[in-house]
Amino acid sequence: MPSVSADTGPSAAELEEIERKYDEGAATKAVGKGMAVFLRIVAVVFALYHYFTAGFGLPSDHWHMGWHLSGLFILIYAFYPAFKTRNAYDLKQSFWRIGNVSVLDILAMLLGISASLYLSLAWRGIAFFGIEEQTFRMGNPNVYDLIFGCIMIVLVLDLARRTLGWILPLIICVFMSYALLGPYFPGILQHPGVKFQTFVSSMYFPHEGIYGVTLWVTSTVVFHFVLFGTIAQRTGLGQLFIDNASILAGRYTGGPAKVSVISSAFFGTISGSSVANTVSTGSLTIPNMKRLGYPGHFAGGVEAAASAGGQITPPIMGAAAFIMAEFLNVPYTTIVLAGIFPALLHYFGVFSVVHLMARKLGLKGMAKETLPHFGKVWKSGWANILPLVGLLVVLFSGYTPYMSAFCGISLLLVVGMARRDVVLSLIIPVGFAAFVCWKALSGEFGVGISITLLAATILGIYNPQKRVTLAEMVTTFETGVKYALAVGAASAAVGIVVGVINTTGIGFRLGFMVTSGATEMADVIHALTEFGGYELFSTSSISLFLSLVLIAFSCILMGAGIPTTALYIMLVSVAQPALTQLGIPPIASHMFVLYYGVVAEITPPVCTSAYAASAIANSNPFRTGVSAFTLGLGKVVAPMAFVYAPVLLFADPNGFDLLTFAYSAVSAIFGVIALSAAVVGVWLAPLAVWARLVLALGGLVFIAPSFASDIIALLIITPVILQQVLARLSQPASV
């Protein structure tokens, strides 16, 4: 890989290479000119199909997911090599290749399309072939069902392998083995086993397995938001975020790092990939941090931690949040509401570490003359916020996420391509305005939404920025589709895991194993902490804490190299039953799993976001990963906080109480501050080793908000507070 300059930052080509190296989903091979034209047409048609069906109505589930899978088979088998060798991505010519796509890949492509569309064609039965309606074949598949079902299972696993590597397919194969070989497993894991025919039927037919909820949400929601994020970046919304982050935080202590945190939070909400977020914003923020004196590994760690946090930042969270809403059968707005404080706690933690590190290193903010001017930024970029406003208005008005994405993408096209002095370009705003009026007249859109969307459409054509050409927008659509391929493959493949869990009940079995093991360990610890009949902690509280720790470690270990969305789907099916057995509210248990899935992305030794940041920063990848993990302590401890205090998610079964919320929030914030100071080694003054250990212990106790635990935490850290106050008074200018 070409060396990256610490002064000027990486070039566009270097950034593309970094993203390809660390984001397996972004690494596509070169194809011949004719094949490139064909694939571009397929990608654009694929994107337009999803775009228009989002606004004008979806076909039946089996047809919609069939078309979606067909597109995945064509594009993945064309763009992703069978094996990732050194020259696998180069353009090659041979008798067995058509435009650098091998004959075997084309055969697999055709088989995949056949398996995808067979189910739709045979849904109502095909009398000529003696195929009954799907209702009569459920659980009793015919020969055609078995053949195409086996093809689908094998090829979907291959799609996941090509886009995401071997880890996910191997994990799925373990689950498949468990389903088929149940009688041979020991103890509580043993079950009667699933017959091969039943297994294929369950994995292939809709509502379970591959055609289950994960693929449905990806094909109806996730793809649209990935496309929205890609177009938003191209039209200038991403740059608007970065400029405003610089205005807000650039001049303060540790300015460039704080800019990285804010801009990554903003951009992460519209980005479908932590690596893409890291590369996009890190290309600007990491060189700025290094120029002002931040160590390379710390600069990369800041960007990686902040970028990963974008997936849990409302109002537009990552793909997993939409799947969570579907699993819990709640409006997406409920998930957004629940994610507000945890996201704030995460970024408060990153901010705290960044601020304290800047003080420790004596780093100042950015020079005033280097900062963007507020008036100039908004004078030229005000129109870029209109699509986001339109999307959020529709989303929070109770309409489907894909309808909100349709409106957001439409406004992006208006803002990016339409100008009042280019007559032909006005076709776009006129078309969208007609759509809004049609929805309003049919009673589907309210007056407020209609006026908002029409006003945004009219204002959008007055965008002073350079117009995006049709060719550029076509390229952007193609890029958005490429970003979504890996998520689509993962969702289809992970559907097998969900199907196995529903068929065998392994989730509850593993949950019982975790809780029973934690209870046994809790009995031992309780005996050691009991003094003359006085117990420091109850057995149930120790058992709960140990169960949470075990589940958290499992989430992080299983997340090594697996995208957050796929990881969340697997873990929520396995870990959530254990959390339910502990009496944790459903939304808290789901958020717990999601957070630790995100933590896995910045946890060494496998942390792709941190590795991408290290490539930009020219720093040691492992040290960068360690920095990212320590900076993300807010994300590490936040799940513990809202499990002990569901009120922080606005999900307390006893109802919301403002006083309880405020108390719990303050307690969690104190815990994050203590942990941040312990990590950096500075608070009011430099901290000795013993003081850092004491602060870390006190911070962890603070995270479980209760009056008793907070008193214990205060008693623990009081010596450090006194030492720090005295040190500060004696050396007021030492830090």
Fraction of helical residues: 55-70%
Strand numbers in spatial order across the main sheet: 1-2
Q: Strand percentage, roughly?
A: under 5%
Largest sheet: 2 strands, antiparallel
Total number of distinct structural domains: 3
Multimeric status of the protein = single chain
Q: Would you count the extended β strands for me?
A: 4
Distance between the termini: 39 Å
What class do helices, strands and sheet pairing give?
mainly alpha
Q: How many helices? A: 32
Arithmetic mean pLDDT: 84
Write down the overall geometry.
globular
- As residue ranges, the low-confidence spans are 1-7
Radius of gyration: 26 Å
Overview of the structural elements:
The chain is mostly helical and 735 residues long. It folds into three domains: 12-214, no CATH class; 216-471, no CATH class; 659-735. It has helices spanning 12-22, 33-56, 61-79, 103-121, 134-137, 143-164, 167-180, 196-204, 213-235, 237-249, 255-268, 274-291, 296-309, 319-328, 332-361, 374-381, 386-395, 401-417, 427-441, 447-460, 470-504, 506-528, 539-558, 564-574, 576-581, 586-600, 608-617, 621-631, 633-644, 658-680, 689-702, 707-730; strands at 97-98, 101-102, 530-531, 534-535. The strands form two sheets. The protein has a two-stranded antiparallel sheet with strand order 1-2. A hairpin with a 2-residue loop joins β3 (530-531) and β4 (534-535).
